[in-house]
Amino acid sequence: MKKWLKRLGKTVMFGLLAIMVLLASGVIYEQVSTRQDLKSYTPSGKLYNVNGHNMHLYTGGQGKVTVVFASGWGTANPYVDFSPLYDKLAPHVKFAVYDRFGYGYSDTTDKKRDIDTITNEIHELLQVSGQKPPYLLVAHSLGSLETLRFAQKYPDEVQGIVMLDSGSPEYYYADAEEPVRGGLINQLLIKTGVIRILFHSDSFIEASRAARNGLKFVPDELKKIDLTASLLKLENANIEDELRQSRTNAKVVLDNKQPFYFPLTVLTSDYLGVPDDVWNKYEKEFTSWSLQSKQLVVKDTEHYIHQYRPDLVADEILALAKR
What we know:
Rossmann fold, 8-stranded mixed sheet, 323 residues, globular, 48% helix, hydrolase activity, AB_hydrolase_1
């Protein structure tokens, strides 16, 4: 019996030692790979100093109106995400795609992600980078909150708003599910390189892009940037805090609600024919945010409408730009 217990103890000890070696190897693998990724992950646009940190803005196009894009929560690289729209917009309008802190090529910041801080940072970025109103604001998903707050704070600079399957403040305040964050397990999987190893699998990459139509309209070189961004921006304090404060941020926007005089277009996904009655209810009521509003349900699309129908999205943006 004693020999058996002794043998069991050795087995357990060697097992624990093997696990520790594997974990340590994974940590080193992740750190080395991250350093290599950072060398090739160079800004697609320019970096500007905002509150002592670098904030990224990608610009292009020509014209009197500047279309300002707000990405959805967790979209690792906004520049890649909105890329199917650039060629369609460039001959007619200027455009500016910003990375909130914690996203894309921007730094992370120690400032809390409350809605007024986020909005002030966006406004300062547009100013220091030399952008000029009028702005046509285009928001995807949770980007609706900062977009509406921007319009509330700087209404004279806004020509109109286009929402890309964006949630209304009423939805985020009253009916959105409680935010689910990754926690310690996700952090462990990231820091020990497990997630990075999974991204070596084509099937895993395809699954991660499924809701974005497989990035069908994105060139291969930009898909590589998106993959690198996904690995570098998987979890950080800014992205987590942004989600954590979404309900509070929605309340701030709601408390300042007054219908806008400029036009609002609400584009809603049909989720490939699988309706969500709660989401659809709020989407229909989203038009109450403007005295000149319309809603359009876009068939055969998922949440990232602009990855499914960039032609239609560009047409709706240009329609407001011409008004």
